[in-house]
Amino acid sequence: MSPTDPLEPPRPADGVGAVGQGVPLLTVRGLRKTFGANEVLRSVDLTVGRGQVLALIGQSGSGKTTVLRCLNGLEVGDAGTIGIVGTEHAVSIDLAAAPSRAGLASLRDRSAMVFQHYNLFPHMTVLENVLEGPVVVQRRPVAEATAEALAMLERVGLADKRDAYPFELSGGQQQRVGIVRALALRPDLLLFDEPTSALDPELVGDVLALIKELADEGWTMVVVTHELHFAREVADEVAFVDGGVIVEHGPPEQVLRAPREERTRQFLHRLLRPF
Amino acid sequence: MPVTSGSTWDLLVEALGPVALGAVAGTIPLALVSFAVGLVIALGVALMRLSRRGWLSGLARAYVSVVRGTPLLVQLFVIFYGLPSVGILVDPWPSAVIAFSINVGGYAAEVIRAAILSVPKGQWEAAYMIGMSRRLALRRVILPQAARVSVPPLSNTFISLVKDTSLASLILVTELFRRAQEVAAFSQEFMAVYLEAAVVYWIICLGLSAVQSRLEKRLDRHVAH
Ligand SMILES: Nc1ncnc2c1ncn2[C@@H]1O[C@H](COP(=O)(O)OP(=O)(O)OP(=O)(O)O)[C@@H](O)[C@H]1O
Ligand SMILES: [Mg+2]
Questions:
Q1: What are phi and psi of B39, to 5 degrees?
Q2: CA distance B182 to A108
Q3: Closest-CA distance of chain A to residue B131, Å
Q4: To the nearest 10°, the Cα dihedral for A204, A209, A212, A214?
Q5: Per-residue pLDDT of chain A (275 residues; tens, 9 = 90+)
Q6: Phi, psi of A52 (to 5 degrees)
Q7: How far is CA A222 from the centre of its chain?
Q8: In what order do the strands lie in the sheet with A38-49?
Q9: What are the Cα distances from residue B71, in Å, to A177, B67, B76, B99, B168?
Q10: Pairing state between β A237-242 and A245-250
């Protein structure tokens, strides 16, 4: 892959070290979030190495989406620290110390999110959706950003849809545009919130295959998913969320096949045998 | 104006000139200018109303409440006949534009506010996700979608406004209805002339409805049906 390939994940900052398990990119310590009296996240700790994929699993309402939203600054945690480190634009935020708006914005700048329901902009074409971030927000040169966007659309098989509106696309196509829109921001970290759970079953495969390709290319990701096969195949680490904490985490083989915690076992049992 | 012929039909043909002139030089520009100014007021008021600052949204709420809770005719009279008694003289035309703009501002603010609130939350989130500020998200993502939703109700507001401008005849603006009144008084053919005025209003509104449905189609082109 050439260094200018738009789909290539960002490289570590000079002198920070090589890509590998041992180099953390995302560190979360003691993340806490309450909604009124509802303590959704009690104390969440996460570490994701550069180029690693973390799968977050857990019951509905356990707070998986809330974790992602806190990482992207869509929600402001009440306490804890969030750091995206070892990159050109490292950020570290102490939420208990009432982080500044600029601090949260810089955290958001380093990550990009793919939504469960795509959330494409319906009044913009596919290409406009992708360019909105790089051109309107990041103010990068239009010609360069367009060339990059078209290359990415080509790559995901949507080059011929560049002028289509979202409603003209299938769910799978919309989600691939959602992924390209996220990549176009050139983030350090990709966040996926159940990226295939709104899709018809026959469309799930393509989207998961694309995410797997990105993982293989070395993108760092946190993926909330109920697709255990996918987690097993793609994730380097699986974390099970319950009761506002990470109950158990480890390699997929261990967490999914031989969970140490009773709660994990019950959850997997229900998921695999729902009736 | 001279009315020479004895037949009602001839009178109507002759009256069409001044009545149409009243529409073209009075009613239509009055409605257009007031609507344009009113929309600007409405957007400001709607955004104030959605502000997280309590005093701003309270102020906006009070404005809407006063405008909607008082008759348009009274608003017109306060500005044209009332203000001079505190030393502020406003000519008929500007008085009418001020009153109608304030009025449209109040009604359209609620339409725009509802339209902004109707845009799904996920659109705000996607806009923030790509790094937009609240202001940029509003301008690039939320308002274009809200605009589509508000076209039908705002068109109705405009059509009502066109008819309401007939009230300006009472503060001496020479628009369609004032012209009709002049012809009617001169000829004593009240029934015929006022019906003719009604028909002209109706034709204008039919035209506006046609424009409205074309506009709605255009704005709907990126939405599934
Ligand atoms: N903005 C909010 N205001 C109030 N409560 C919220 C808000 N967002 C989430 N919650 C609550 O937080 C809890 C966790 O929600 P969250 O969406 O993070 O769960 P989840 O693990 O993603 O669930 P699912 O698998 O159904 O998507 C739920 O009880 C939810 O009702
Ligand atoms: Mg969720």
A1: -65, -40
A2: 67
A3: 6
A4: -110
A5: 444 455 677 665 544 444 445 689 999 999 999 999 999 999 999 999 999 999 999 999 999 999 999 999 999 999 999 999 877 778 888 888 887 778 888 888 899 999 999 999 999 999 999 999 999 999 999 999 999 999 999 999 999 999 999 999 999 999 999 999 999 999 999 999 999 999 998 889 999 999 999 999 999 999 999 999 999 999 999 999 999 999 999 999 999 999 999 999 999 988 877 66
A6: -100, 160
A7: 4
A8: A91-94, A79-84, A24-35, A38-49, A245-250, A237-242, A53-58, A220-224, A189-193, A111-114
A9: 51, 8, 9, 11, 13
A10: antiparallel
pTM: 0.88
Indicate the residue type of A60: S
Q: Is A74 left (phi over 0), alpha (psi -120 to 50) or beta?
A: alpha
What are the DSSP E strand ranges found in chain A?
Answer: 24-35, 38-49, 53-58, 79-84, 91-94, 111-114, 189-193, 220-224, 237-242, 245-250
Enter the DSSP assignment of A260.
Answer: S
Given the cut 0.85, state whether the ipTM is greater than it: yes
Q: State the amino acid at position A111 in one-letter form.
A: S
Sequence-ordered list of residues with C-beta below 8 angstroms from that of A100, at least 6 positions apart, any chain: none
Site from B130, B136, B151, B225 to mutate, A interface, most A CB atoms within 10 angstroms:
B130
- Counting Cα atoms < 13 Å in the Cβ hemisphere of A103 gives 15
The token pair that represents B88 in the structure block: 């502020």
Chain A: closest CA distance from residue B128 (Å) = 7
- 10 Å Cβ neighbour count for A156? 20
Those residues whose C-beta lies under 8 Å from the C-beta of residue B212, and which sit 6 or more positions away, are: B151, B152, B155, B159
Residue B89 exposed, middle or buried by CB count within 10 Å (0-12, 13-18, 19+): exposed
Probe site for chain A from B123, B124, B129 (most A CB atoms < 10 A): B129
